[in-house]
Amino acid sequence: ETGVTQSPTHLIKTRGQQVTLRCSSQSGHNTVSWYQQALGQGPQFIFQYYREEENGRGNFPPRFSGLQFPNYSSELNVNALELDDSALYLCASSRPGGTQYFGPGTRLLVL
Amino acid sequence: EDKVVQSPLSLVVHEGDTVTLNCSYEVTNFRSLLWYKQEKKAPTFLFMLTSSGIEKKSGRLSSILDKKELFSILNITATQTGDSAIYLCAVPSGPNFGNEKLTFGTGTRLTIIP
What is the pLDDT of residue A1? Predict the structure, then answer.
C-alpha cells in the first residue's frame, strides 16, 4: 500500500449535481495529481497541485477544479456533472519531480 | 502532444507461460518511462526506466527501454494467477519538474488461466 488515501470509495450522483472528492497524500509528499480513468482507458491527467497552487492542467473544462491544503491533502470538485463524467478518479502523490504513487480511487457514477 | 501506445490490448495465457508486453511512445522531452500494475483500482508502481539497454528486474518481472526505437517491453516469466491485471505504461512530462503530467497508454489486460 502506498499511504495515499481517497474518499469516498464509491459515489452515485445525477446529472447537473456537484461532487467533491478527497485525497490525502503519502507522508513526505507535497505534490498531488488527479486523473480520470474511463472504463477500458488509461488514466487521463486532470491537474496537479504543488504548494497549494495548480501546477499543470490537462484538457479538462473549468467545471473541474481543485484545492490543496497546507497539510498537502487535496480536493477535486466537479460542477454540473455530465453522464461522461462517470469514471474512476485517481489521485497520486509525489515529491516534486519524483515518482507518482496512486491511491485506491473513487468510482463515480452519474445517472 | 505526447502519445503512448501499448500492445496487445488483451492477452490470455496459461499459468507458467512467459509474456511480453509492449509500449511505444512519442514525447517531446523524454525523461523516463514508467510501468504500473493495476489490479482493481490503484495502479501500483513497478519500474522507472531512464537509460537504454539497462534491464530493470524485480523477481519474475523485468523491463528494458530502447530510446532509439522509442519503445519498452515488460516481460513476466513463469506467470501466476496473481499476475492477472492491467499493465499500464506512462511517460512523465511538464514544464517545471518534468513529471507534472503522466501520459498513459490504454493498458494491456493480462489474464492468467490456472
Answer: 66
